[in-house]
Amino acid sequence: MQPYFVVSGAAVLFAVLLMIRIRLTRSSGSRTVSGIEIGNGQTIGSRSEQDDYFSSMTTPVGTLAVVADGISGLANGRMSSTLAVTTFTKAFAKLEDATNLNGYFAEAATQSNRGILQNLNGQGGGTTLAAVIVCGYQLYYGAVGDSLITIYRNGHFQTVNSKHTAETLLEERVLAGQMTSEEAKTSPVRNQLVNYLGYEGFESMELGRAPIRLYSGDHVLLCSDGIQEALTEIELEEIMRKGGTPQETADAMIDAINDKGFKSQDNATVLILAIG
């Protein structure tokens, strides 16, 4: 009987998370909150299910935006990304001030990792996650995995976070003279994640040492890796330079990906925050 209750409990939890997921993702379309206009775009690509999940919300503390890219495997990718984003948004809603936002990121990541591991119960799964909080003209961030946070300013992108993949380790080996640049580029483990939520060895997420100053006209983008794998930085810059609302821009990125029609196109999600 005990295994039955474990499976039933997991099924109920997943159903609740799915309902929350549906409610949150219905709020699509460009909207303006506290001087920040927000747009989002998403495609399932060629995958059989959508493992990306995202959300944004504004409270008196500031505006939170978060994107998670679930690691595929039965329903575990969807469960992991949904649980992580839900954990981050619920914790943010309880914040009363902005005195310790790095503490918020760290605690929400720890709670997410613990919750995902409990639900995986030894199975494969997990999720990357990129989150930002904008307070006035200050950007705080936390990230784990290979989802990207970048700032578009004056016609160019400025990358905020690092990729937590074997690529970084390989580049360090190249600099140390332990392997050639060509060997690093062609390594089969190049894109393998070395840190994510739902990982037994997870210790912490990447946090900004200090807030990043934003300016009016800046655009903050959060992208799952399906975006940067399909579109080059030059292509993304061309789309950004056309202007338009954040929603129009996000739609244009997704349209560009779909138009390429890659047979192995990953799930792709972008959140765009335009700073007023």
TrEMBL record:
CDD domains reported for this sequence: PP2Cc
Keyword Membrane: yes
Domain PPM-type phosphatase stretches: 37-275
Superkingdom: Bacteria
PROSITE patterns membership: PPM_2 (PS51746)
Classification via SMART domains: PP2C_SIG (SM00331), PP2Cc (SM00332)
Keyword Transferase: no
Keywords: Membrane, Transmembrane, Transmembrane helix
Segments crossing the lipid bilayer: 6-24
Protein name (Swiss-Prot/TrEMBL): Serine/threonine protein phosphatase PrpC
